[in-house]
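Example S7 (structure tokens).
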């Protein structure tokens, strides 16, 4: 029985050392204004109400992170993963989410003027009650998203997809839907 315990203990030690080595390869950062968090692992991070203005989250993993009411003005989430992340009531003016994976993310009542969601995947995301002024959704996927009561003004949805998107009481003012699949017609 003793040799089995030794083998199991050695295997557990090797596994924990391997996990530590994998974690050591990931960049670390201290989230704050203009923080350099490119490629960082921030899964499940609690960033509620934080000032993250101008922070660099390019390629970072923010899956299930909580960024509600955060100041994300000018933050860069290009190529980041933020699956089921919380951005409710966040201030996202001029934030960049180019090619970001935002499936199931919650942007309820967020302010996202002049933000860029070009080629982002917002499938099943919640944007209800958000203000989206001058925002780019070119080539983005908003399939099965909830945009009820969202105000879209001077935004572009060129070549985007909105199949099965919940549109009730959404406002589209001076919006470009050229080449958009499933977008509202004659809005």
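Recovered sequence:
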């Amino acid at each position: 029985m003793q040799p089995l315990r030794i083998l199991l203990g050695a295997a557990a030690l090797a596994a924990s050392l391997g996990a530590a080595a994998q974690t050591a390869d990931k960049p670390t950062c201290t989230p704050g204004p203009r923080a350099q968090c490119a490629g960082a692992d921030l899964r499940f991070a609690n960033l509620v109400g934080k000032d993250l203005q101008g922070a660099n989250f390019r390629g970072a993993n923010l899956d299930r992170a909580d960024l509600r009411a955060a100041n994300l003005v000018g933050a860069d989430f290009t190529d980041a993963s933020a699956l089921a992340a919380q951005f409710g009531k966040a201030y996202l003016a001029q934030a960049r989410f180019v090619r970001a994976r935002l499936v199931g993310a919650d942007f309820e009542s967020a302010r996202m003027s002049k933000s860029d969601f070009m080629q982002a995947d917002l499938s099943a995301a919640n944007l209800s009650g958000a203000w989206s002024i001058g925002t780019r959704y070119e080539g983005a996927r908003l399939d099965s998203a909830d945009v009820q009561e969202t105000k879209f003004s001077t935004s572009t949805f060129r070549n985007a997809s909105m199949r099965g998107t919940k549109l009730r009481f959404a406002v589209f003012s001076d919006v470009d839907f050229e080449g958009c699949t499933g977008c509202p017609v004659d809005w």
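Notes on this example. Strands lie at 131-133, 151-153, 171-173.
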